[in-house]
Task: structure prediction
Amino acid sequence: MNERRTIQEKEITIQKIGKTILIAIFGIAMGLCSKMLDETAFNELPYVMQLLDITNFLGRFGIWIFIAVCISVYSYSAKRAALNVFVFFLCMVSSYYLYSAFVAGFFPLGYALIWFGITAISPLLAYACWHAFDGNRFGILVSAVILGVLFSQAVLLFQGIRVAHFLELVLWFLSLWILRRKKKEFTIEIVLSLIVAVLWQLVVPYWG
Result:
């Protein structure tokens, strides 16, 4: 019995390590892809990418929040979420700025410091995000903050209410589906998220 349990634990450990490695590869790929698109003239992109404004989308903040949230909530544990999100951001940011410095020949130090700062605090945020599925008040609050921040990126509230970017609105709807819960709790979650969105746009300068 103990032997079987040991084998299962080893299998789970291998799965965890494998998932983290895949996340690292994904981070590297996203960083390189984002920078390569930055270096490509808009009219040289495929028509679909032009229509969806992919380059601008990857240069905004919403997509990276969404990816980090997905990695967090689907990790095995809060500690694993912290590790996986840190690995993703470290690989993504490193590959982006290494390409920028050694291939594109341009290294924007100010922006790099901002992103490495975000990478440094990402484990703490991921640890909290992992609890978004919890049925208690903290879980509802975490979900509301996530939805509120994503909504604040997708919709401008104080410049004439309008959608800032269509794909970010799609991300918000996907987040609603991911973080859905029982009707009463979900209603509270949505109301709180709208309050968060308003406060976020009042306090935090719009980045996008």
